[in-house]
Amino acid sequence: ADLIQISEESRSAAAQKLKIGIYFATWWALNVVFNIYNKKVLIAFPFPWLTSTLSLAAGSLMMLISWASRVAEPPKTDIDFWKALAPVALAHTIGHVAATVSMSKVAVSFTHIIKSGEPAFTVLVSRFLLGETFPLPVYLSLLPIIGGCALTAVTELNFNMTGFMGAMLSNLAFVFRNIFSKKGMKGKSVSGMNYYACLSLMSLLILTPFAIAMEGPQVWAAGWQNAVSQIGPNFVWWVIAQSVFYHLYNQVSYMSLDEISPLTFSVGNTMKRISVIVSSIIIFHTPVQPINALGAAIAIFGTFLYSQVTILTSKLGFGTFKPSQPSA
Ligand code: 3PG
What we know:
It is a single chain. By secondary structure, this protein is mostly helical. The protein has one domain (26-315). The protein has 12 helices and no strands. The protein has helices spanning 2-44, 48-68, 79-105, 108-115, 118-128, 136-155, 161-185, 192-214, 217-231, 234-257, 262-283, 290-315. It is globular.
């Protein structure tokens, strides 16, 4: 009987691993498609405030239809849920629009290399704003992350300050989003999928007035006509693709957050950037100098080091930070 139990346990552990593997592969693939179409749209139609609003609108619409048609069970929420969601939505909105503004100014690969520095922001925010302490090896593992990002930034051929600052602001905002959202998801009354849907809806409400103020219908109409005349009717499909894939990859990532620790999520997210960086360099023929690529490799290696050091030191019981606590 013991043997049967052990083999059942190992089978269910293998099934769980497979499930997480499928989540990760789907999340990364959807993200690559989003990034490609998002950039294609931004090249022809440089209005990042509108494209980021459309991404949230597409997701909100898809989820409202799914709830109304009972394809997905609508979440049971109360006022406290929405109150707890508000800071998450604000941080999500800022992080999303800042990343999109960044990608409208610089190569997709550059934005994502800077965004691979997110674990460093997690540690610094946790240390200086939340007062959590980390063992020395964790701080040391940030050096390659920060050094690698800095090396890439100073050797970037098409450096642009707005592009750089947008990616940095996105990092900062997403650290807060992840800290608040893990708190908000506690109790598990709302699934990851529905949690992200509510997040989209609220972010859409926050972002819309700002998008109108920053860009507005007049410039959108003129820009749209220009883009359609350049690209042809396919342009509409590009916009739809970037919007729908934005929702899908985020939905899958929040579904996987139900199953994994925030640290695993954070590392998975940085590894996801490798596929985005490589595929966007190939598709958009982005010029890269070897020293620039070296910076990216060092930063990504730093994230791997950071994850290993965090797991090891928390197992040994150093510091107040636990990988099961909110992280990027
Ligand atoms: C966005 O538009 O929100 C960014 O591309 C998001 O980036 P991330 O989900 O890869 O952090």
